[in-house]
Amino acid sequence: MCVCVSGIVFSVLIGRYGCRIVTVVGGVVWFVGFASSSMTPDVYVLYLTYGIVAGRFICAFVFAVLLSRGNYV
């Protein structure tokens, strides 16, 4: 479900800013969420950092890569 909702948002961002920018920003935010989840003191913060931040922006990263493959190949 999150992929479906995020796909709509990230497709608008890809249309406005381009695949390259969304891929880089999505990868950086995913890395920050993934790295910060390794230092969490509580399981609820882990849900926030890994589940929402890293999960949402890995969708941006993958979605932009798949769209760029269709646009440039």
List low-pLDDT spans.
Answer: none
Proportion of residues in extended strands: under 5%
**Shape field:** elongated
Total domain modules? 1
Could you tell me the radius of gyration in angstroms? 13 Å
Give the topology:
Layout: H1 2-17, H2 19-37, H3 43-72
Structure commentary:
Helices cover 89% and strands 0% of the residues. It is mainly α and 73 residues long. It has one domain (2-72). Helix 1 crosses helix 2 (19-37) and helix 1 (2-17) packs across helix 3. The longest helix has 30 residues, at 43-72. The chain is elongated. It starts with a helix and ends with a helix.
Notable features of this structure?
single chain; 73 residues; mainly alpha; 3 helices; 89% helix
Describe the structure concisely for a colleague.
The chain is mainly α. 89% of the residues lie in helices and 0% in strands.
